[in-house]
Amino acid sequence: MTLSCLSTRTIEDVAAATPHGVRWMQVQFLNPRKQLENLIERAEQSGYTALVVTVDQPIRGKKYNFTKDYNASLLTFTGHAKPVNVDLSVGEVDFDNSATWHDIKWLKSFTKLPLVLKGITTSDQAKNAVECGADAILVSNHGGRQLDYLPATIDALPEVVAAVKGSGVEVYMDGGVRHGTDVFKALARGARAVFIGRPIIWGLSCKGYEGAKQVLDILKDEVEKTMALMGCRNVNEIEPSMVVHQDYYRQQAL
């Protein structure tokens, strides 16, 4: 799982609750920079095994539905009322919109943890990520919540996979994963793994831990059934030719 740097549970609390889990820490460049350094050091000390660096959000996007009725848009969870992994005592903490690829190189030198760059959607971005030392790429458009008209991640995925071929950099994908067939399509188009967000929140909202587990169980069952019906005994047998864009059949009809 990936823990948000704006989580309402501390880095240490989550580590203590998941002693045998795989934990990654999501970070982004913050002002002041000391906030980021503090987050990374705490993540390292608490046994997190990678940093997921959000690179596509130098500022907050415009969310009209959210700003129209701010209070109605908030969900209430058990935990702290405000993010607890940043030190609010130092004053206003905000995204650092001056960060560039050079800052990725600095981050690489600051930590020994692998860097997963989240928010990559083009071949140029992917090549820059590799050049700056990324260990993996997460193809993501922030769930469509920051900027309208971005490409669907499933469409952007093959371009990114092709751009990093031979580099040893793994490619993951998030966004729009709601069924096991979505997982299959992502794997066929070159993703090493997929990440999910909203379905887990829905499960937690309905039934807590059991709800989140049920969401994962449903997805796992759907993936296995999809693989069987596609003639795949394991994920290594999933081929790119097994998935085509819907435009393929439109062109055939013409």
Plain-language structure description:
- The structure is a single chain.
- The model is unreliable at 72-77 (pLDDT under 50).
- By secondary structure, the chain is of the alpha/beta class.
- The protein has a seven-stranded parallel beta sheet with strand order 1-2-4-6-7-8-9.
- The chain is built from ten helices and nine strands.
- Helix 7 links the parallel strand 7 and strand 8.
The radius of gyration over CA amounts to 19 Å
Can you tell me the residue ranges where pLDDT is under 50 for at least 5 consecutive residues?
72-77
Indicate the proportion of strand residues: 5-15%
What's the rounded overall pLDDT mean?
89
Largest sheet, in brief, is: 7 strands, parallel
Strand order of the largest sheet: 1-2-4-6-7-8-9
- The total beta strand count reads 9
Helical fraction equals: 40-55%
User: What distance lies between the first and last C-alpha atoms, to the nearest angstrom?
Assistant: 45 Å
Number of helices: 10
Structural class comes to alpha/beta
What overall geometry do the principal axes of the alpha carbons give?
A: globular
Element order: H for helix, E for strand: EHEEHEHHEHEHEHEHEHH
